[in-house]
Amino acid sequence: xxxxxxxxxxxGSQLAGALHxxxxxxxxxxxxxxxxxxLSPSFKGKTVSGIGFDRDVLIEAGIERADGFxxxxxxxxxxxxxALIAKRVFHVPRVVxxxxxPMRANIYKNFGxxxxxxxxxxxxxxREHLLxxxxxxxxxxxxxxxxxxxxxxxxxxxxxxxNDLTVEGQAMVICVVRLGQAMLPSGATxxxxxxLVFACVxxxxxxxxxxxxxx
Length: 215
What we know:
Order of helices and strands: EHEEHEHEHEHEEEEEH
CATH class of the largest domain: Alpha Beta
CATH topology of the largest domain: Rossmann fold
CATH superfamily of the largest domain: NAD(P)-binding Rossmann-like Domain
Helix content: 25-40%
Number of strands: 11
């Protein structure tokens, strides 16, 4: 697949490097040529110097045949403008942008572009580590409205049905791993000691779900 990354800071250089290692074709854009020094010496993708929302710069980076575009510069305005251009002008199928300001993130996601607010994500991660060690958030979906949670079945849940943890529109158990074997739970799935459970939970319901699980 072909990906274009805007911003060769710590996040952008790591992202571009990871995509390249996985075998994808990667172009990375930054207005400061010296920023490309952050890339690994093994990086064989294309580097383009210029402003990320400049049409000619994007075309040079291969935006016209890109499967995905990510804008991860330090500027919210640059990130969202370039993401909008990638989506609406060049019709890139997958577009995501990083936004620092949580207020802006809530506005920009209405444009139909997934936004990652590092401020909100970081605060939530730290909060979870401080308060809830046993119930881990593996990842978020969309702009963080839904979280994938992982936890080991606590003693009070042993012998209960996986369906007991499903709340319509709020939470659903999607996978149970038992003795190293994964299964898709049904109404007949009874939780056992040592089971590892994965559940998708609405962000607004996470606190109540923790109470439901018993953590």
